[in-house]
Queue: 2 jobs
Job 1
Amino acid sequence: MPNSTRRAADPESAPDTVRLRGVGFGYADRPDVLRDVNLSLPQGSFHFLTGPSGAGKSSLLRLLTLAERPQTGRISLFGREVTDLPRGGVPAFRRRMGVVFQDFRLLDHLSAFENAALPLTLAGQRRVDHAADVAEMLRWVGLGDRMDALPPALSGGEKQRLAIARAVITRPRLILADEPTGSVDRAMGEKLMRLFQSLNKLGATILIASHDEALAERVGAAVLRLENGHLRQSQPVGDAA
C-alpha cells in the first residue's frame, strides 16, 4: 500500500468514530427501513454490514454521510452530535470521510488521475505536491497504465477501483464503502481488502456494506447484520487488524 507515516490512535482514549442511538429512518413507501438502530464504531475498528437486498444497508450509509437525516434517534460522528447539524457544516465532516459509492460517482470529464486526486485538489493541494502519492495509489489498485483514461473508457471493475482510490487518497479517519468489491474478480477483491486492512492498521475506522459474508469471515472483521429494520452484531471471526 502507498506509504504513510500516520500511526493508529490509542482506542482507549478516543471517542467512538460513529454512534447511533435509537435511530429510525424510512421513506414514504417504506417507513420502517431502519428501526431503533443502536451502533457504536470505536476508532480504529473494522466492521462489515450485511443483510438481504433492501434491508437498509445503503440507507444506513447515507445517514452516516449526512446525505439523509433520521426521523428518530441521534447520530454522532467523531465525538460530535450531528443529528441536527446545519447543512453548512456538512462538508467539513465529509472531508474527514472516504466514501465508496455503489454507482462510483466519477466525473466523466476528468482523467482517472484527476478523479483520484479530486479530494486533494478540493482541499487546496497543488498537483506537484500530490502527484507521486496519487500515481502510487493508482498503481496499487491496478490502474497504473490507465491514469490518463476518462471514466467512460474504463470497465466497471476499473471504475470500482478508481472510486476506491479516490475515497482513500486522503487517508480519512472514517471509510464507508458500499459493495466495494462487487465489480472486481476475487484476486483484485482480496487485494483491495488488504488496502482497507492497511488503512485500518493506520487508525481508520472502516465500515463495508457487502452481501459477501464469506469475505467478512476471511478478513476476520466483526459483522453487523440488518434484517427487518433491526441491527445485530456478531463477534469477529479473527483479527481484523
Note: The CA atoms of residues 160 and 213 lie 19 Å apart.
Job 2
Amino acid sequence: MLKAFKRHWWKWVFALLVLMVALIYWYLRPYRPDIEALAAMKSTEEITVRNEGQVILFEPKKPVQPSMIYYPGGLVEPESYAPYAQALAQADHRIYIVKMPVNLAIFGGDRAASILATKHQDETFVIGGHSLGGVMAARFAAMHANELAGVFFLASYPDSKGSLVSANLPVLSLVGSNDGAVNQDALMKAKANLPNTTEYHTIQGGNHSQFGSYGFQRGDLPSSISAKKQLDETIKLLLNWEQTAINPVKPTQ
C-alpha cells in the first residue's frame, strides 16, 4: 500500500486540496436574499433603488435627515436588507447599504468614507449594521465621529477598536430575545465600549436572522414572532431614535 501511495501521491494531494476548497466554499457561502428582499429591490413611484458600485441606494423623493449607512452582517448578501431599507426610505430617509468584499465587512470597514465624501448638501449620517457589520461600523464611527450624527447596532456590539465612549454620539442597540448567534457574554461586556446614554431595546421573540431577509442563519434560535413583526418593531425603534436622539435637519432640497 505504501508503494501505491508513493506512485500516486499527487492524486492524494489533489483530492485533499479539492476537499479543502470545498470546505472553504461551504463555510464562506453567502446567505442570499429571500423573495421578500428581492421584491423590495425594485423601484417604486416614491423610492428609487440604485444598485451601483459598492452601494445599494434607496432614494426617496423628498429625503429628510439623517441618512443611514448600513453595513451587512457577515456572509450576508447586501440585498438581504432591502426590506429594512425600503421601510426606512418610506419614512423619507435616504439609505445606503454598503456592499462588502466576499460579504465580510471586516474587509471593507472604510467603505463608508466614499459615501461621506460625496454627500449631498446639508446631508447628515448615522451609521450602523447587523452582526459583524455593526462591529465594523463602530470602528469606522470611532475614527470619524465628527462626520457622523449617530451609531446603531442590530444584534451587534462594538469591540475595543470601535469604542464609542468618547465619541459623543447617540447610540442605539437592538437585539432579539431569541438570538442564538450573538455571543451574549461579549454583548454584555461590550457595554463598556458604549456611552452611558446608549439606548438598549430587546425585541421579544426576535432572533438574529430576522434582522435581515435571508432565511435562517447557522447557530441561531427559532423566533417566536414573524419576520414582518420583527421588521416593524425594528423600524419603529430606529425611527423613534432618529427623531428624538439625532438633531433634526431640514429636508434635502
Note: The chain has a mean pLDDT of 90.
